[in-house]
Amino acid sequence: MAKLEKIDGWRWRMPQEGEMRCPAVVYADGELTRALEGDGTLKQLRGVACLPGIVGPALAMPDAHQGYGFPIGGVGAFDPVEGIVSPGGVGYDINCGVRLLRSKLMADEVGEARLTALADALAASVPAGVGMGGAHQLADKELNQILVQGAAWAVGRGQGTASDLEFCEAEGALPGADPTAVSSRALQRGRGQAGSLGAGNHFIELAVVEEIYDPRAAEAFGLSQGMLVLWLHSGSRGLGHQVCDDYLKRLAKDPDALRPPDRQLIAAPPASPVGRDYLAAMAAAANFAFNNRQLLSQACREVLGRVLGLGPAALGLGLVYDVAHNVAKREKHLVGGKQKELIVHRKGATRALGPGHPELPGRYQGVGQPVLIPGDMGTASYVCVGTARAMAETFASAAHGAGRAMSRTQAKKAARGRDLRAELAARHVVVRAASGKTLAEEMPEAYKDVDQVVRVMHGAGIATMVAKTRPLAVVKG
Amino acid sequence: MSSGSGTMEHTADLGLWVQADSLEELFAGAPASLAELMVSGPRDGELDWLPVSFQGVDYAELLVQLLSEVVYLWDAEGLLTVAAKVSELTPGTLEARLGVIPADFQKHRANEPVKAVTYHQALVEPIGSRWRAEVILDV
Q1: Which domain holds residue B127?
Q2: Of A58, A445, B15, B103, which is the most exposed, with the fewest CB atoms less than 10 Å away?
Q3: What CATH number belongs to A5-476?
Q4: Whole-model pTM over 0.90
């Protein structure tokens, strides 16, 4: 068992030893740290610290838990020449991510009856579930365009506005995407899934801004107390999963591959043919996901407009931000006082740029990047903001959500005999889920306490609290 | 012959175990076990037999590839795997046929939303006189 040494109330160090090439740092309080010691998170974090070319430390965010390859909530930055790129450091759902839309509506003006109607209409209008088709059936040419253009493809077809792109990470399209690096099998899985939510923990949530902690940042983000907002969580669907699968398989046979003991952590030098191809295919899948969330948000805009009888201007569903939380990107960071290009893997972790970063939209230059932290469907979610400290300490990274506390099986056992819909209704949350099983697996207790996760980030100064939202109506995939 | 299968816990995902009297039976039974976990509903109708061929460094890698095909066929092609026949199995090679039926969305319901079969903690090993396989599924 890897040992942790306390740095302060929010940080713990795993000292470099054995085959580790750098130390690791865990962002957690004492209670979260004890939870991490109960599963394979620390062992996996140690595995990340053993990879060649890591520009340390390896990092675990406060929502970390066991994954495969990297832990969920894991961050690793690698030298582009001496380091590696690993599909296991990105995950299967490439560019799984979150976006938040503000509105011009106050939640109490909408009322419970219309929130119920909205939940029903969203559940009926937005395709969800594994393997379920999307709202858009794509020809090869369109699919290839999406893989390069990302969210701009949808915007170019009237599905949103140019300003939506300004408020997406990487403006909704990672550079370097190459559709020819994506297999025909991956294309086949994606062909019918554009504009679909997916299954598992993916969701659409209408929520109310309950509390503002940082009025200046909230104003920049266009958020105010009592406002109705919309959260959306989805990714690259089957296409991204197949890209990951394809490259794990190719790496297993590739002479350039590095084969750590955990075969899910198989990797290759970024400049090797397989490394280059993976990065190009991963960027293409990431762009499919950006486009997917764009199509989904436009579908939500249309549903809200129809149900509430309001036009786009009256609804005012503007994008606060869209962030990826499963991705590897070439980014510049200060290392030893010098700007250096690194390949930053974030698996279940969110980019968290501080004020003044050139990649931020002008409106956010003075405050920093919105860091979106969805919680569970019964309690709360948070909007935080990236900091200079995150840029200095965590390769501009923060947590991505509450993180699971229970396995799906444990959650189903805990839900047995309970009426979760009624429990959520008692908290004034309308929920629509594809099945009772999904509802049980995603029950609030299945997740860590999001307040605690955010408190650690805030205390550590890597992302600070801006606003808290409370769920009102949730549609689960 | 006696075989069995069930699920195991994983923090965010789900594990599948399969046991059988022989390696061939293990590989022949695992695809249908996974498909049963993924999709509920009738398995009637004539089977279409699809040949599949995989290379790997060990049995675990071959099994992950075989089960990944079951996920792909369902997700991309709308084909539900009902049975499998193994014609060649060595630690480096698997030749098999998957017996599939077309999905009928009036009758078939998605059960566990399996999106991928991972290499994480994948194993195929003898347990006494029998064989056991375990894989973690991305859901």
Answers
A1: 4-138
A2: A445
A3: 3.90.1860.10
A4: yes
